[in-house]
Design brief:
The complex is a heterodimer of chains A (381) and B (354). Chain A has 14 helices and 4 strands. Chain A is an alpha+beta fold. With 354 residues, chain B is of the alpha/beta class. In chain B, strand 4 and strand 5 form a beta hairpin. The chains are: A alpha+beta (381), B alpha/beta (354).
């Protein structure tokens, strides 16, 4: 059959009728579409993914979502308990909270707070409150919700020892805590894929050396390594530099697992028939790696990256909790949890533990998401 | 070990024109590495002194049980492996010859399109992340065998020839059945219009009805495209169906090489005889359990083969000489080669014509 004949035959079939059209559409379900279909069936992962997305949006637009700035304090309301928000008053949408009243215990002089139902603090959506500089670029003062009268107390999740709003601080903290994971994973992913790739592709003595090195590094307990590295960060450094150092420290500890995954994928692929077929096609090395090998395990890598973000978040939280990570005035969930190191605090002001709840939710959500991604990573099996 | 070569005999019979491919004393030893320092403690002799030739247009079968080195030989020919020693003399279209065992990877590239391979497993041999068009056209693209415009026609053409609908070229392999996937594998091998095709267990992964279809397809394609096949299989009935000549391997060595009919009806090597007795007979009334030869012991270890003839510990005709002297592949007339000291004395039975 000559080329022209085939051309005609193809044209014939293309105009063969309406059924061919739909045929063509079914054909082009790509790998990513298949993965998405499979992922969608994993309800828990979908939920986790939505939650993760929600938290990152919260972090990205923290200035807007937080009712007040994270540095705003009010010494009148030190350790004020959480307020319940009410949305409807007299049948109309008009959010409000009740005010506080406090008494001193005549024996212990302890300040006890109570809700004062006689005082109603009206709230407003899209409220003009604390002025801020959004991402340090745009001036604004719009908040999703806030008290109409700026001097009124509004503590959804209570107040801390300086009378700062825990809810607002949790939202601002997400910015640091969540990006530490992303940046850290990006760094450890780069190191991991490079080292693992060399190990798996070159093989031989190089592979042997890298693997032994990784085994040694992995066998060192993480906490002392963190502590030692974090202790080397000078106190005089700016918050941004400390933040960057912390992510580097976290990723220096975290790249080994990823390097092993990448190496094992390369090793497994080397034995695959389709790789030998490509080799026999005369595919050059660079194209082999980028076109034939990496696409077949990229989805697995994405899944393992997702699963390694929680470790980074927990690492930052642990470091900051121990006072070796980020330091005030930078605010992260770990920094906030520093206030809860005393048992008395937990007993009397349990709402200071809310940052831990945020950590748990995010870590769980990321794990569910990663699980779903891993299951969907191979849509052909 | 004696280093006698059957080359002289082979050369003498290659009278009817030069063969398309001549394998001479091919050796492929895989080192056994132990310890962290990579000390080589021995070699697995996957192919040891293998010599044969393939005439243009014929189908040569390569049989043997699992682990006998037949796949290794195939992979050496397509140069997935670099042979330890020996030569693979390939005759170019202009009748000049080149030793594929010696050429560097750059020169090798020019023969990649002439010598192609069909794989056993239709599932693992197709990249699940590439669609059929990408899979088949890859060889055209990387070797710049045609313009991107022509590529689509070439792929459509070969798909049509292999019994696949060209409209499906944008589909991914998972959308196809095992038999269709093997057709894709065949199309990939044949899209360059090769001269020699190494079929490594090309139908072993398919169920019986599909196997027949694929065998017939390969037979048709051989005639249409003037192909030469090296057909590697452990399946004796498939080999008989498709091959002109058959080579039998045992533990990395060639033990017998003859016309398919001669080999099946009149085997000259005891190992071939035992293989033939294992060919299943479809008619239960004709089955004769007594004549079935059951070999004693295990297949020899290719890293530590027995002395003399590798088959002697399991051979029921073995004599003193077999354990000391390695037999040489020799011609017993009619291009029937056999590596057995007593080939001209033994009376062996082949497959009964049922």
């Amino acid at each position: 059959m000559t080329i022209n004949e085939i051309d005609l035959a193809l044209a014939d079939r293309a105009s063969g009728g309406p059924s061919t059209e739909s045929d063509v559409r079914i054909e082009v379900a790509t790998q990513w579409q298949l993965m998405w279909w499979k992922f969608r069936r994993h309800k828990l992962a979908m939920f986790g993914g939505a939650l993760v997305l929600f938290f990152y949006l919260l972090a990205a637009f923290a200035e807007f979502f937080a009712p007040v700035n994270f540095t705003t304090y009010n010494e009148q309301y030190v350790y004020a308990p959480p307020q319940m928000i009410h949305f409807f008053r007299e049948g109309k949408l008009a959010p409000y909270v009740y005010g506080y009243k406090f008494e001193r215990d005549p024996v212990s002089y302890k300040k006890t707070w109570a809700i004062d139902k006689s005082v109603i603090i009206p709230l407003r959506f899209f409220n003009h409150g604390d002025p801020y500089k959004f991402w340090g670029l745009f001036r604004g003062d719009l908040h999703l919700i806030g008290p109409v009268n700026a001097s009124d107390p509004f503590y959804l999740l209570g107040a801390d020892k300086s009378g700062r709003d825990v809810f607002s601080r949790i939202i601002y903290s997400a910015r640091v805590s969540l990006t530490v994971g992303l940046v850290g994973v990006a760094i450890s992913f780069t190191i991991g894929i490079l080292v693992g790739g060399i190990s798996g592709l070159v093989g031989g003595v190089v592979d042997n050396l890298i693997q032994r090195l990784i085994e040694i590094l992995i066998s060192i307990p993480t906490l002392p390594v963190w502590l030692a590295l974090a202790a080397m960060v000078p106190l005089s450094w700016s918050a941004l530099r400390v933040y960057f150092m912390i992510t580097v420290i976290l990723s220096l500890v975290g790249w080994m697992g990823l390097a092993r995954v990448v190496r094992s994928k390369f090793l497994a692929l080397r034995e695959e028939d389709f790789i030998m077929a490509a080799q026999l096609d005369g595919v050059p090395r660079g194209r082999m790696i980028t076109k034939h090998m990496i696409p077949s395990f990229l989805s697995h890598i994405i899944a393992s990256i997702t699963l390694s973000i929680p470790g980074m978040i927990l690492g930052e939280t642990a470091l900051s909790f121990l006072g070796l990570g980020l330091r005030p005035p930078v605010v992260s969930w770990g920094v906030m949890l520093q206030d809860t190191q005393k048992v008395a605090v937990i007993a009397i002001y349990p709402w200071l533990l809310f940052p831990a709840v945020a950590v748990i939710i995010v870590v769980l959500a990321l794990n569910f998401l990663g699980d779903g991604l891993r299951d969907a990573a191979d849509p052909y099996q | 070990m004696t280093e006698q070569t059957p080359q002289s005999q082979l050369n003498s019979i290659a009278t009817n024109g030069k063969p398309l491919l001549e394998v001479r004393n091919l050796k492929m030893y895989f080192p056994i590495v132990k310890g962290i320092f990579g000390k080589i403690t021995g070699y697995v002799k996957a192919a040891d002194d293998v010599s044969f030739y393939i005439q243009s247009g014929e189908t040569l079968g390569l049989v043997g049980e699992s682990g006998c080195g037949k796949t290794t030989v195939g992979r050496c020919i397509v140069r997935a492996y670099k042979p330890t020693d020996g030569s693979i003399v390939y005759q170019r279209a202009d009748e000049t010859t080149v030793d594929l065992a010696k050429v560097d990877s750059k020169e090798l590239q020019t023969y990649r399109k002439d010598i192609r391979m069909i794989f056993q497993d239709p599932y693992s041999s197709l990249n699940p992340r590439m669609n059929v068009f990408e899979i088949i056209s890859e060889v055209l693209r990387v070797n710049e065998l045609c313009s991107p415009k022509e590529m689509e026609y070439m792929v459509a053409h070969i798909m049509e020839q292999c019994g696949l609908r060209p409209e499906y070229m944008r589909r991914y392999p998972h959308a196809f059945s095992g038999g269709e996937r093997q057709r894709i594998g065949i199309a990939r091998a044949l899209v360059t219009s090769p001269r020699l095709v190494v079929c490594d267990e090309a139908v072993s992964g398919l169920d019986v009805s599909v196997r027949a279809q694929i065998l017939n397809l390969m037979e048709d394609l051989r005639r249409e495209m003037n192909l030469t096949y090296l057909f590697i299989s452990h399946d004796l009935s498939v080999i008989r169906h498709i091959c002109d000549r058959v080579a039998v391997m045992y533990v990395g060595k060639l033990v017998e090489l003859a016309d398919a009919n001669a080999l099946y009806t009149n085997p000259l090597h005891p190992y071939t005889e035992s293989l033939m007795s294992a060919v299943p007979i479809p008619n239960p009334n004709l089955r004769d359990r007594k004549n079935r030869i059951r070999l004693e012991g295990e297949v020899a270890d290719p890293s530590n083969p027995p002395s003399g003839c590798y088959f002697h510990p399991r051979c029921r005709y073995a004599k003193e000489r077999c354990s000391t002297e390695t037999p040489v592949l020799r011609d017993l007339g009619d291009h029937h080669f056999v590596a057995c000291h007593f080939a001209d004395e033994l009376e062996l039975t082949g497959v009964r014509m049922a």
